[in-house]
């Protein structure tokens, strides 16, 4: 799979089918019904040094608006280039007059399949500064609030001086702070039961005391009726209000309202988010702005409430949602869908940092966070390293920064026989309909353009395509050339304020599906295929009632292995797969056991959290979510990856499990005894000390590069927290025989070998 990694390093793209199957309707349905022609695209992936930043506007086709690229056919004598998408011939402008075979513009270099254009002109006004509105839950116990205040003060110190900030707090009331008032702490209160419009919000915040309210039109920023002085009362540069903001945060106290033992605190999360969105929409529309919500419990009042105040009324579970007995769920989702549309229209991002041992409503908030491209961090406490480290990473600059960008628009061009079914990922449809749009919608579909309010260097989307189907192979051969072309265009505002356009142009060869199975398998990326079907499966679980994920993924695996396997009918021992597909059954086995399919032991909030991270991560990170990696450390060998199997446990080994969300350092029984005896503190046992430190160094590297920060669990064999490792291992012995660590795993799950035996028997029938 190294060659697919090379393609990703060049353009940020991984496709399951790198040689695209083109076939008749019957054949196409059999070949790619469950693993469709698709692509995982990391929009702003840091690319190799040869990726170009061109200080001028792109040259576009007059018909389809695609951008000049290395696959364009150039006639140097006539100074004309041919578009590979619509085949239209376009003249070069005067500034390309010197073009020649030995004097090409950079965008025509053969390796310039991904280039960036600088869209700002020298006369463009300076970009507005980034804007942050902190929305803080004060219905917390004193210890939790102190943890949160400490992290907020550290985050404020990391903000650039020109950043604009605002502060909103909430319990049963929403409190908007006037940070520009110099004499004392001044704030405006709003009742948490009400849903305020933007006009009502501006009236109550006294925006039109000195200046008259515009008689008509939309009120949005300084250009449309608001004075800069009024805006600066609530949203102003951090350098101008640093002392006031620090003072307000330090003075924050827990909600003064007494809460009975059998009641939950009155918390109006939805009203607070609506007010923050309205304030940003009025003052900084279309700018790089983020609402950062810090939530410590479930919303119990006003719009977006997910549960009643009585503790005897449990928060909804997966079973309640499936049976349509969650009283608050659908109304809350409807409210956050409306909030998502408002934020997408304004171009603003919603980030959620949820820290509680209880559910807080991530399942309902998911639509607003996902469509705006926001972050979500889920932890047990505001004092937990998962929250503290993740918040620091948001504002961190340097080698491991997130590369935050904003105000993105993503568009696509394809060859005429390719249609776009949709995108599964952090974006919102712009409803740009046209001939590229398929009749079938998956995710954000029925469009060829999407809005991405927030994105970073790891943001990845899954594009699902439909290849035009023909009745016979002869029609296919007559109607198509042997290449398909894709062009991805991403407009965005860089973290340095520049407006850029990144253009990635791809070419993939097609073959007849049933006549060239060997060629198809040679171009099959099994890691990308596993990630695509995981995204599709998760999307179907969210949107289709009575959907059976195990049956669906089993059918996908059986269909694929039936087509590409080599076997004799009736003989399971004769079955084999080529190297390009050999790991795919193993990925499916671990997917069936993963948190994406098995939701029984997870809350709706946890399931939504897992899916949101899956929908925005690249192939390498997503495959770790599906099949965790396991590394062994011992005194007798160098660290090495080993099988994710119970047989890998040994008394004299340390195992490091990376499941993306959790890192587990597992000490074998002998290692644990030596550590407790203090051997690592003795000079003659420096090798043992180094052994104990090695997995910590590995985890430190992973934590420094990953967002959100994973949870770190350090445990011993036979300890209670060893379950974090044992739950992910393949029960190869089925619980019937001990492995080298003299322990058993008792489980109803079948082992990988039993799963593969069943698969072989089904295929050769």
How does this structure look, described?
The chain is an alpha+beta fold. The protein is about 30% helix and about 20% strand. The chain contains 22 helices and 30 strands. The strands form six sheets. Strands 2, 4, 8, 17, 19, 20, 22 and 23 form an eight-stranded mixed beta sheet that branches. Strands 9, 10, 11, 12, 13, 14, 15 and 16 form an eight-stranded mixed beta sheet that branches. A five-stranded mixed beta sheet has the order 27-26-28-29-30. The protein starts with a helix and ends with a helix.
How many β-strand stretches? 30
Helix tally equals 22
Global geometry: globular
Main pleated sheet: 8 strands, mixed
Separation of the first and last Cα atoms: 31 Å
**Mean pLDDT over the residues:** 89
Indicate the structural class.
Answer: alpha+beta
Residue share in helix: 25-40%
Query: What fraction of the residues are assigned to beta strands by DSSP?
Result: 15-25%
In terms of per-residue confidence, which ranges show pLDDT below 50 for 5 or more consecutive residues?
A: 475-480, 734-742
Rg, please? 28 Å
Write the layout of secondary structure elements.
Elements: H1 2-11, E1 13-14, E2 19-22, H2 25-32, E3 38-42, E4 52-54, E5 73-75, E6 80-82, E7 89-91, E8 114-118, E9 131-137, H3 142-158, E10 164-170, E11 173-177, E12 187-191, H4 198-204, H5 228-234, E13 236-237, H6 238-251, H7 269-283, E14 289-295, H8 318-322, H9 329-346, E15 349-355, H10 362-371, E16 376-379, H11 385-395, E17 405-414, E18 418-424, E19 428-429, E20 449-455, E21 460-467, H12 473-479, E22 483-493, E23 499-512, H13 517-522, H14 526-543, H15 549-564, E24 566-568, E25 571-576, H16 584-593, H17 604-616, H18 619-626, E26 629-634, E27 637-641, E28 654-658, E29 662-667, H19 669-676, H20 686-705, E30 711-716, H21 723-726, H22 752-764
């Amino acid at each position: 799979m190294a060659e697919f990694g090379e393609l990703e390093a060049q353009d940020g793209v991984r496709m399951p089918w790198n040689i695209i199957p083109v076939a008749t309707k019957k054949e196409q349905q059999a070949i790619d019904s469950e693993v469709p022609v698709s692509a995982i695209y990391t929009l702003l992936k840091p690319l190799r040094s040869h990726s170009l930043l061109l200080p001028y506007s792109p040259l576009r086709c007059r018909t389809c608006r695609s951008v000049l690229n290395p696959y364009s056919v150039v006639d140097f004598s006539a100074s004309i280039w041919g578009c590979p998408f619509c085949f239209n011939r376009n003249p070069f402008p005067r500034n390309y007059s010197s073009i020649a075979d030995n004097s090409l513009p950079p965008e025509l270099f053969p390796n310039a399949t991904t280039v960036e254009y600088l869209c700002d002109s020298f006369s463009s006004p300076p970009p507005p500064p980034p804007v942050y509105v902190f929305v803080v839950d004060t219905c917390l116990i004193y210890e939790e609030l102190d943890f949160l205040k400490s992290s907020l003060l550290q985050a404020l110190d990391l903000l650039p001086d020109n950043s604009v900030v605002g502060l909103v707090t909430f319990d049963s009331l929403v409190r908007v702070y006037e940070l520009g008032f110099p004499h004392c702490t001044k704030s405006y209160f709003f009742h948490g039961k009400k849903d305020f419009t933007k006009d009502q919000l501006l009236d109550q915040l006294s925006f039109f005391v000195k200046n008259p309210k515009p008689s008509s039109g939309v009120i949005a920023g300084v250009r449309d009726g608001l004075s800069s002085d009024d805006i600066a009362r609530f949203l102003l540069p951090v350098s101008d209000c640093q002392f006031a903001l620090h003072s307000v945060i330090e003075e924050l106290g827990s909600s003064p309202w007494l809460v009975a033992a059998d009641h939950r605190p009155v918390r109006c999360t939805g009203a607070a988010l609506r007010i923050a969105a309205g304030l940003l929409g009025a003052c900084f529309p279309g700018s790089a702005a983020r609402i950062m919500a810090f939530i410590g419990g479930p919303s119990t009042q006003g719009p977006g409430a997910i549960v009643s105040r009585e503790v005897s009324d449990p928060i909804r579970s997966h079973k309640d949602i499936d049976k349509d007995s969650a009283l608050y769920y659908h109304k809350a989702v409807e409210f956050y869908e409306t909030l998502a549309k408002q934020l997408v229209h304004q171009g603003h991002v919603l980030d959620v940092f949820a820290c509680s041992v209880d559910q807080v409503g991530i399942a309902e908030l998911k639509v607003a966070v996902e469509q705006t491209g926001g972050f979500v961090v889920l932890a047990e406490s505001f004092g937990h390293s998962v929250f503290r480290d993740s918040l620091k990473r948001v504002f961190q600059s340097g080698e491991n920064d997130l590369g935050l960008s904003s105000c993105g628009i993503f568009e696509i061009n394809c060859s005429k026989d390719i249609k776009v079914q949709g995108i599964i990922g952090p974006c919102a449809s712009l409803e740009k309909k046209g001939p590229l749009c398929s009749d079938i919608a998956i995710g954000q579909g029925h469009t060829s353009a999407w809005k991405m309010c927030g994105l970073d260097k790891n943001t990845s989307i899954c594009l699902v395509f439909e290849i035009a189907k023909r009745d016979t192979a002869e029609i296919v051969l007559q109607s198509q050339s042997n290449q398909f072309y894709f062009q991805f265009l991403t407009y965005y505002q860089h973290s340095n304020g520049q407006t850029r356009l990144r253009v990635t142009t791809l070419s993939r060869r097609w073959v007849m599906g049933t006549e060239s199975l060997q060629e198809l398998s040679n171009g099959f990326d099994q890691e990308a295929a596993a990630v695509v079907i995981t995204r599709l499966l998760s999307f179907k679980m969210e949107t289709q009632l009575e959907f059976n994920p195990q049956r669906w993924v089993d059918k996908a695996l059986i269909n694929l292995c039936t087509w590409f396997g080599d076997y004799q009918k009736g003989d399971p021992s004769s079955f084999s797969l080529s190297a390009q597909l050999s790991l795919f059954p193993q990925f499916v086995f671990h997917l069936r056991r993963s948190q994406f399919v098995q939701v029984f032991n997870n809350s709706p909030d946890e399931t939504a959290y897992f899916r949101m991270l899956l929908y925005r991560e690249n192939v390498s990170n997503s495959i770790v979510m599906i099949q965790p990696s396991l590394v062994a450390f011992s005194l007798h060998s160098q660290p090495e990856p080993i099988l994710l199997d119970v047989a890998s446990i040994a008394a004299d080994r340390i195992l490091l499990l990376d499941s993306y969300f959790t890192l587990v350092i597992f000490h074998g029984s002998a290692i644990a005894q030596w550590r407790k005896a203090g051997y690592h503190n003795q000079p003659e046992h420096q090798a043992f000390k180094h052994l104990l430190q090695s997995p910590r160094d590995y985890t430190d590297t992973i934590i420094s590069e990953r967002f959100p920060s994973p949870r770190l669990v350090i445990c011993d064999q036979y300890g209670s927290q060893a379950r974090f490792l044992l739950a992910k291992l393949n029960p190869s012995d089925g619980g019937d025989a001990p492995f080298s660590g003299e322990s058993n795993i008792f489980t109803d799950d079948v082992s990988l070998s039993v799963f593969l035996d069943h698969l072989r028997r089904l295929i050769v029938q």
